[in-house]
Design a protein that fits this description.
The chain has 172 residues and is of the alpha+beta class. 13% of the residues lie in helices and 32% in strands. This is Rieske domain-containing protein.
Length: 172
Amino acid sequence: MLATAYRLTIFRQSSLASKLTQNSFKSLRFMASAHPTAPEGYFFAGPMSAFSHETQEIFPIDTPLNKRIAIVNRKKKLSAVVNICPHQGVGLHKGECVDIEDMGITWGSAIVCASHGWSFDLETGACGNTRFVIDVHDIKVVEDNVYVSLKPKNGNIQGPRRDFGGKESDLN
């Protein structure tokens, strides 16, 4: 219920509906509908179908948390990361996903910031370019519904974290 109210409030406070992305409208549609109670320590992010598009891998979502989250569907594996690059606050959903590989062996996947190319491991949140770390949240899929943990799962990873208070910068 908290997530539903939060997203509806965000929509009502928007001065121009045209500024909302297509994902915001999808988000509003499924958040306004009834959904099952989230497991303890998790919030409802949406139905699995909302994160399963052939042409898109990164899906920004609004949350009941004081931070933005992006759901990443990379090779049919879901990840949830803070949607703010710690460098200058650009939304990571504007970037792309890549494989982390060494000599032809794929070790994992990363999300790359569109502004300056900083890459973050989707499992650990560690940056391949600096000491910075982004929060990574656990995901549960229950009966085709996606739930994201309220607390990050990578608290043990050392490094500075900065999310600009959950507000994306105006940089492109």
